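Take a minute with the sequence and fold tokens given here and flag any structure token that looks odd. Thanks in advance.
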Amino acid sequence: MDDFDMGLLDDTEYMKTVLRQKMLGIAPVFLYRVPKEKAPGVEYLADEWNLKKPLQQCSLRIERRGDVLLIVFTFRKEDMKGSALFALCKIDLVNTTLPIVHWVQPVGDSSRYFAVRVEDEKGGREAVIGLGFREREEAEDFCQCLANYSNAIARERLEHAMEMVEDVDEDV
């Protein structure tokens, strides 16, 4: 799959020092216009998204780059070879106190649809788009991928804390 300009995450020095791990790829997925962003604690409903008319049909790729999880949505343009970046969701559970549902929230009326917060890293704008999968199994794989990332970050934090405790014990 093609690589895309992802702003700071494609910095040459960063690319040399950070492990890139591709975790999931699914095609096609469907992206929907979400009428308006919901207040915290209010669930999204896929029935409000005009499911018969997706905004875009895309490929989804999830990869981890260092501490950051990227959900990359790409699409094929008829007039160009390869794929073009449609949207990007960048999740960083290390450098924030926000929970993962800030970026990816299941909807209240289906197990195959999610509200995803995407951002324009260069412009600093954010938007919420709807994400839909054809098959329930694909949605489950997506959820498992997010859970694996969350668990890995929690494990790494615990290991780091244990190392700090051992260092303090050695100094005493």
